[in-house]
Amino acid sequence: MSGMLMKSSRRSFLSGSAALAAALVAGKASAQDAVTDILNSSRRGNWDDQFDAVSQAGDVQSRLPIFSPQTISYVQQAIGRYQGIVTAGGWPDVPATKKLQLGVIDPDVEALRRRLMVSGDLSPNAGLSQSFDTYVDAAVKRFQARHGLPADGVMGTYSFKAMNVSAQVRLGQLETNLVRLQTMSNGFLGDRYVVVNVPAAQIEAVENGRVVQRHTAIVGKIDRQTPLLNSKINEIIVNPYWNAPVSIVRKDIIPLMRKNPNYLTENHIRILGPNGEIDPKTIDWSTEDAAQFRFRQDPGAINAMASVKINFPSPENVYMHDTPSQGLFNKLMRFDSSGCVRVQNVRDLVVWLLRDTPGWNRQHFEQVIKGGENTPVAVVNPVPVYFTYISAWSTGDKVVHFRDDIYARDGVSELQISSAQ
Length: 421
Prior knowledge:
Strand content: 15-25%
Oligomer: single chain
């Protein structure tokens, strides 16, 4: 009997959502009447409680791992909900002609309100006025957080572009990523493991089915993509040398030396040949002859990997590391590396990785960093690491996340938000 009630309640909920979406998309003055009719319906069951969950859903942040049976279930629920939104006509475009923010009174705010109501970020009880009030401000911030954008409440270029991706395209994005999630979530990933989600530029450290640490990342540029891989973290190098890949020598170092002959000296980079160190002045920088040699940067504050490097076997020889350029983590689009992954607050992650390695507590780790000496450390009980590509997922009931399809793997150009000008 309870199963029948739940199915009935779900049907009422979806039909109610469709009716509301249709009214909002049509821009009818009766949109509020549609809400009232639904809430006052004698057959609504507990729809009013579920309605509150849609318009004021759970926290965008979650400790739920992206690879888990719960995530799959939530994504399947989201697909059902988005199918209802698409059937009802989707959501309206919001004119991207001016900056909208708290305090603005403008006809475009009404379209913004409709859009946020359909996606569940704004309660229909907030009304359809032209005022960008605190309710709209909170709804925009929630929308931005769900889409990996700075949650500042200001509708700018990237927020408009993310908001005006059609409901049909978002539905397809969810369906595409459901397959990826199912592929990874069915097997045992480990009691402790690390996930690098490339399009989200985010890292999860997972233990016993719960995210214990989450880190912002910098991943590869479009033309120097971070590869997808499964491996095990087996080594930490404190105060690492940095060996420049040949691609960086060709694309970056040689052109920089042509502009500034002191570049290598200023950045503590040495050229190493078969017979030892080579004087940069003996190399013809108008050619690419230098690419045959090894370029190694000394440990130190300006080292490209800063204090630490996280190693694991991979065909592409990629790794995770610290960075002296901490400001990059605050960038809107964090696709700025040459394929390796930079980790914000990396020392917290390293202490967690070295937990089973005798003698490597936080205090000793920090002391070794201060000492400045290159120190490799073998990780006891190597930790699985997964570089993956998930651009849409759900972390809870009615909390749906979308990210920029930076490497165009989802097959729809509209999802490449970073191409917005």
